[in-house]
C-alpha cells in the first residue's frame, strides 16, 4: 500500500532516467527505487539504487515509480529531491533540497 505523504520528490529529468534504466538494465519485476542513507552522524550519505521492498520499508509512488524508504531513514531524507544532471564530461543522480519545502 502506497503512502500518501511523500518525504521526497523526483524531478522530471530524474524520473525519465530512472524509467529508462528500469526498462533497459534488466531491473527485475517487483523492484523499485530504494532511497536511504548509509553511515551515520556527520558521515551519513544519501543513497539511491534498485531493490525489493523490505518489511521495514514505507512504499511511495512518485512519478509512477515505486520508491522504497526504510522507516528509520525517513527523517534524514525528508525534504530532498532526486535530480539527474548531465554535462559534456559527467552525469548522474544527485540529491538537492526540494524547492517546494
**H/E element sequence:** EHEEEEHEE
- In the CATH scheme, the class would be Mainly Beta
The share of residues in extended strands comes to: 35-45%
- Given the structure, what is the number of helices? 2
Radius of gyration, in angstroms, nearest whole number: 13 Å
Percent of residues in helices comes to 10-25%
Topology, number of strands: 7
Give the domain tally: 1
Report mean pLDDT, rounded to a whole number: 89
Largest sheet: 4 strands, mixed
Any idea what the CATH architecture is?
Sandwich
Inertia-based shape: globular
Helix and strand content put the structural class at alpha/beta
Unreliable stretches (pLDDT < 50, length at least 5) are: none
CATH superfamily: HesB-like domain
Q: Cα distance, first to last residue? A: 25 Å
Structure description:
With 101 residues, the chain is α/β, with parallel strands linked by helices. The protein has a single domain (8-97), classed as HesB-like domain (Hypothetical Protein Aq_1857, Chain: A, Sandwich). Helix content is 17%, strand content 45%. A 4-stranded mixed beta sheet has the order 3-2-5-4. A 3-stranded mixed beta sheet has the order 1-6-7. A hairpin with a 4-residue loop joins β6 and β7. The model has no long low-confidence stretch (mean pLDDT 89).
Can I get a quick summary?
By secondary structure, the protein is an alpha/beta fold. The protein has helices at residues 12-24, 74-77, and strands at residues 8-10, 31-38, 45-52, 57-62, 65-70, 80-86, 91-97.
Amino acid at each position: 500500500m502506497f503512502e500518501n505523504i511523500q518525504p521526497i520528490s523526483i524531478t522530471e529529468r530524474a524520473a525519465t532516467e530512472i524509467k529508462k534504466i528500469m526498462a533497459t538494465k534488466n531491473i527485475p519485476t517487483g523492484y523499485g527505487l530504494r532511497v536511504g542513507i548509509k553511515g551515520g552522524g556527520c558521515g551519513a550519505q544519501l543513497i539511491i539504487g534498485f531493490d525489493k521492498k523490505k518489511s521495514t520499508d514505507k512504499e511511495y509512488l512518485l512519478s509512477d515509480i515505486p520508491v522504497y524508504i526504510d522507516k528509520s531513514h525517513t527523517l534524514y531524507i525528508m525534504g530532498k529531491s532526486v535530480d539527474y544532471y548531465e554535462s559534456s564530461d559527467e552525469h548522474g543522480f544527485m540529491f538537492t533540497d526540494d524547492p517546494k519545502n
